[in-house]
Automatic annotation (TrEMBL), chain A:
Domain of life of the source: Bacteria
Species of provenance: Peredibacter starrii
Protein name listed in UniProt: U32 family peptidase
Family: Belongs to the peptidase U32 family.
GO function terms (MF aspect): peptidase activity
Peptidase family U32 C-terminal domain segment(s): 317-396
From TrEMBL, chain B:
Record protein name field: U32 family peptidase
Amino acid sequence: MTKHQLPEVLAPAGSLDKLKIAVLYGANAVYVGGQKFGLRTAADNFTLDELREGMNFAHERGTQVYVVLNSFLHDKDLEEVPEFVKFLEEIGTDAVIVSDLGVVKTVRAHSKIPVHISTQASTLNSESARIWKEAGATRIVLGREVSVKEAGKIKREVDIEIEMFIHGSMCMAYSGHCVISNFTQGRDSNRGGCAHSCRFEYSLEGLDTPEKKKAYFMSSKDLEGLRVLPAFIEEKIDSLKIEGRMKSHLYAGTMSKVYSEALKYYAEHGDFLSDDLINWEAELSKVSHRTYTEASLVEKAGADSIFNERENASDGEWQMVGSVIDANPKSGIVIEVRNAFNQGDELEIIPFKGPAIKVVANEIMDLAMKAVTRTRPTTLVRLPFVEGVSSMHLVRQRGKA
Amino acid sequence: MKLTSYGRSLHELNILKDQGFEEVILEPKSLSRFGKLSKDEFLALSMRAKELGLRVLLEWDILMTEDVFTAKLKEVNDYVAHADAVRVQDPGAFGWVVRNTDRPLQFIAENGNHNLPALEGWVDLAKGRLERLILSIELSKTAIEGYVQKLKVPCELLGMGRILLFYTPRPLLSALAPEKMTMNGEIAALGESEESPHKGFPIVENAHGTFMFHIKEFCLVDFAHELRQMGLGFFRIDQRWDNQLLAEISGLVKNFDATGFETFKEKYTQDLMRGFYLVNKTDVLFPKLKNSRLQKREGDYIGEVLEAEKGSHLAIMVKNPKGLKKTDLLKILHPKGEIFESKIYSLRNLSLEEVDSVAAGNLAIIQFIGGVWVKSQVFYQ
């Protein structure tokens, strides 16, 4: 537990940049993946040099770093784990996240790094948590099917750290219990090759309709647990995890900021009874997401937790314009542009703390100081310097194509 | 190698007895994912199985959240008392059986557990109570052979039956057609995915959640002899959805004949597959999931090109703690694989001042190098 008996905010960091963003925007801990052994093969992931740099960056700011080793490894994969684990210990890794008993044993045989049991192991009850504790785990990342009340009971009965997901995409299946990709695509979903078959449309036959019924029946809405925060605190949950190592810089920053600010508010006031709650929810809605649900945090997720819509990656109300590369009175605000904006557009620059800084892009210049009327993605542009803006700040704009 | 299978009726118990089975798996509706038996039916079948000399295995294979687990504990002893061994999948049930009963335990290690230390770990955690490990069908025969030889407990493998692809506690079908729910609390459909050429995935929703199976069934009947020679303990035949050919399958496993197997396949309603039995290559596609040329390297990596303005400049975000010096020689890897080598003729900072070096974390502006694009990776030569 952190001070004030509040849970830590644990943010995803799919790359070194995202790690820095999550840390700067307030995450108490981040989780990252190396080039192997994780479940996000397609993510950038970290080189050894980046792991070392990320670890130093986070630790200098009081943030913990957990490294995922949560694939269901085969014997051949396991051979490479000891060397990696020794490296992780050497650079000061705060914990590894593991879902396979063989990996737990291997980590413990070659290091003293604390072991967290991944949600991939679908730990759902106190007896299960007890078994993993006996195997050497210090923390359990519970399955998303467990309610906060149940989690509190597990913690009390087993006396082990409990981590729960509070935000992000969800597997519809019990985590680790879906092998659709394995058998239909030849890609092991539990070794990082998930093809997201649950997000596609299925035609269903046999449901008493003359024609096949089409539905995205296996696609889950996204988890959002902001209003459940008091219950997490009451049940003394140790860590609140945000899903999404594959997601954007804007996502990593916004989630880290919103949840850490909400918890800080609670620490100061002892409640969430604030207009800020509306603002925090508004902030969460500004990031691309499926319809939100509290899933099973309070009551068992039912049929209303099915998303049943085709994905649309750019359906966020707001979109990320880019990130600030540098900001000083001499060279101005230098933005790495991800999505184009025009002269005269209203932008919001998100500081690490406090409300967004509104900027109208009346004067845009390229890197060579030539005036620009419309920016292009993958370019760098300058805006006049504004007090309060600094490097690594994220820039967003109300959504447009 | 012994045979094992499920029993849901007196008729099925008699078939198992006639085919020389020594045990039967009984599935209470309350504890088993696809169970059909009420408590009374379980007790009656258990009694009859014992009269027939069949060992009774209680299948308790649902996954359980804390509240569900607590509820199940109120009744599980009634079943355990009439079983010779208990089969579990939830590690919680595993732990509870070890700590609270005297029954031998069989652990369903079908999800993951694709390495020997994991399987040995479960043996150790059972403290001498584990009598069987049920292995994953994703294992290759090489892996199976190794495990069978090295593990201290016998292993079981699905030899014939449906392949479970997906298991959720959420009700997914009744939301679409609640009127289709049967008196038995089940609803079934066939699914066809837009992403896959496969059609007819069987989908079942019941009190424990929703399950989807592969369109083909798993079949190692033609490898039964090989598995027997490896030393596999138990070959499971799962015909719970259509048991018409249970006796014939059992006969083929015991005495395989190629012609008979061909005849069998012709009349079997489902297509068959052997999955990853010969080889599991489900990780070979991973390197293709991302552009290897965009992946960062250790050691000599400087950073990434963030802007390439033709005829003007390249902007490089310097990431190496050594920074970038004007005297450095560069090797630049284009996202498409082309390699460019160059000296630095002009090195400027963000204020466009000529400098001798740029530190890590800053933007370095150098001369434009023809052919280099954004996202190119920059290295020291």
